[in-house]
Amino acid sequence: KFDDIRVTTHIQDPASQRLTWNKPPRSVLVIKKIRDASLLEPFKELCIFLTEVKNMVVYVEQKVLEDPAISGDENFGVITKKFCTFREDLDDISNRVDFIICLGGDGTLLYASSLFQESVPPVMAFHLGSLGFLTPLKFDTYQSQVTQIIEGNTAIVLRSRLKVRVFKENWDKKARVDENGIILTNGDMDSCRKLLQYQVLNEVVVDRGPSSYLSNVDLFLDGHLITTVQGDGVIVSTPTGSTAYAVAAGASMIHPNVPAIMITPICPHSLSFRPIVVPAGVELKIMLSRDARNTAWVSFDGRKRQEICHGDSITITTSCFPVPSICFRDPVNDWFESLAQCLHWNVRKKQNYLEEEF
């Protein structure tokens, strides 16, 4: 009988998520924002500390070392000779790096995420950019914070990502297939489809692009058509992305520990179309409506922008490869601190004290 069934659940305290090492980390990837002169000295100082003091193997992107301000520094050249270098989309470093240090703004964390299509090493993000919502650590105490990470036992937040697959129905057979593409055939090259796959930390944005017409796309949930989006487009975001483009479009802000996917219309031509939150794990599918007047465009964390035509489709679900981000204090306090400092959440002038009347 149902009365005899007792259903219980265990809710994990976000503060209980801790980073521990099975063995001491030996390699670190340093991500530096390109063409930012203000980051040169912090970058050099950090790399000298990692190599000379901590004896770490440091990975740096090749284009970072091509900066004349770095390549022309003879004193720092002794350090750069010890670096391991890599090139985006060409070299696989997924199994070589123990943790990541980001120097810059929120974009550096998004870029670091894009480098790993499966498991992502823990990320330390130092606030050296303009906004810093995702970068809680301050660089002036970097030595003690890096030491603490190497020793382990620090708080982390697991930022979920979206697994996105784009099926291109009518691709050009003569065009070069990029490294992320997989060619699917049914035995005949004329019936080929191109499959592109992405791991997205913030959001997938489908919009009308340069067209003056409304975007007109169908939205499916686990295979069932739930609505047609008419407007400038739609944003499908993670909880981490809920405080990015989605919040500017009128969405709620969701803590990154909440397992969810948010769907936010962009300027919908309907007064009743409000942002909705669906459970993590469902599969969303976006296609051009049959009677759409124009194509649509899609981007992934603001990158890899491409056109979506009739017959193409985009499937989105929660990835099983989150981004473990190092906290300054703990996931809850860090998040509210970012809301207050970066977005000035609920900031207003206080009312004057009302004196008691006699």
Mean pLDDT: 88
Strand order of the largest sheet: 9-10-8-20-17-12-13
Poorly predicted runs:
185-191
CATH architecture of the largest domain: 3-Layer(aba) Sandwich
Summing up helix and strand content along with how strands pair, one would put the structural category as: alpha+beta
CATH topology tier name of the largest domain: Rossmann fold
Helix tally equals 8
What string, H for helix and E for strand, traces the elements in order?
EEHEHHHEEHEHEEEEEEEEHEEEEEEEH
Query: How many beta-strand elements?
Result: 21
Helix fraction, binned, reads 10-25%
CA radius of gyration is 23 Å
- What gross morphology would you assign? globular
CATH homologous superfamily descriptor of the largest domain:
Probable inorganic polyphosphate/atp-NAD kinase, domain 1
- Beta content comes to 25-35%
Distance between the termini: 66 Å
Task: Produce the secondary structure layout.
Layout: E1 18-19, E2 27-32, H1 40-53, E3 57-61, H2 62-65, H3 68-71, H4 74-80, E4 84-86, E5 99-104, H5 106-114, E6 123-127, H6 142-151, E7 154-159, E8 162-168, E9 181-184, E10 193-200, E11 203-207, E12 215-221, E13 224-231, E14 233-237, H7 245-248, E15 260-266, E16 276-279, E17 284-288, E18 296-300, E19 303-308, E20 313-318, E21 323-326, H8 331-342
Parallel strand pairs: 2-3, 2-5, 3-4, 5-6
Antiparallel strand pairs: 1-7, 7-21, 8-10, 8-20, 9-10, 11-14, 11-18, 12-13, 12-17, 14-15, 15-16, 17-20, 18-19
If you had to describe this structure to a student in words, what would you say it looks like?
It comes from Labrus bergylta (ballan wrasse). It is an enzyme of class 2 (transferase). Keywords: Kinase, NAD, NADP, Transferase. The protein is an alpha+beta fold and 358 residues long. The chain folds into 2 domains: 22-159 and 322-342, Probable inorganic polyphosphate/atp-NAD kinase, domain 1 (Rossmann fold, 3-Layer(aba) Sandwich), CATH 3.40.50.10330; 162-318, Probable inorganic polyphosphate/atp-NAD kinase, domain 2 (Tumour Suppressor Smad4, Sandwich), CATH 2.60.200.30. Helices cover 18% and strands 32% of the residues. The protein is built from 8 helices and 21 strands. The protein has helices at residues 40-53, 62-65, 68-71, 74-80, 106-114, 142-151, 245-248, 331-342, and strands at 18-19, 27-32, 57-61, 84-86, 99-104, 123-127, 154-159, 162-168, 181-184, 193-200, 203-207, 215-221, 224-231, 233-237, 260-266, 276-279, 284-288, 296-300, 303-308, 313-318, 323-326. It has a 7-stranded antiparallel sheet with strand order 9-10-8-20-17-12-13. Strands 16-15-14-11-18-19 form a 6-stranded antiparallel sheet, with no helix packed on it. β18 (296-300) and β19 form a beta hairpin. The radius of gyration is 23 Å and the shape is globular. It starts with 17 loop residues before the first strand and ends in a 16-residue tail after the last helix. Mean pLDDT is 88; it is low at 185-191.
